[in-house]
Amino acid sequence: MTLQPINRQSIPDEIFAQLAGQVLSGDRTPGESLPSERTLSEALGVSRAAVREALGRLDRARLIQVRQGGSTVVRDFRAEAGFDVLPLLLVHGGDVDRATLASVIEARAIIGPQVAALAAARANDDVRARLRTVVDELEAESEPVQRMWRVVGFWELIVDSAESIAFRLLFNTLNQAYVPVLDVLVNVMAAEVNDIEHYRWLAEAVAAGDEGGARSAAAELLGLGSAAFAELTDQLADPR
Hints:
240 residues; two-stranded antiparallel ribbon; transcription; DNA binding; DNA-binding; Tscrpt_reg_HTH_GntR; transcription regulation
């Protein structure tokens, strides 16, 4: 749990990353007091202003609680933090957390079908045309990572068509967690990403205002990725 000196001065992002990583990994436990600003600035080799800014960010993320005139304590992030902590949980310390990634895959499979149904109920003519165009572009794209980016764009259209700010903000957070590991997932998600017919089915269901069809198409499509990820997880757990 030793803090590592920061090589450059006044870099709150790096301070935030170190301390957030310690909280999320369990190296710092709920209720534990953090060292004072002075102690942290000396240990990290940075200014107190940089430490103060990083602590403010950690407080806003509900990873710590900065008490006025008192100690700064670690919060129980599982009980108190918001959805915006998910990207930090997924990648910290330079590694992808497999359990968190599984949770992201699971969440998209549950949320996606309902969002697709809302999109079918609310999409306008412009969105319907754009969805068909995106599917054509997806089919024409042969480079695996670029095809995954086009899939992200497809789902962004679906979410926007649903006209739900709550789902849009959830999508943003899932996206922030998902996009940094696209390169890692490119082979695992190939079965889902390459199934053009399911994307076309979903686009046509949304265009037709078919809520049930859109829900079914999304569920089957996202289920392909979920199944592939589950298979990989089983292989890693039992490499025989």
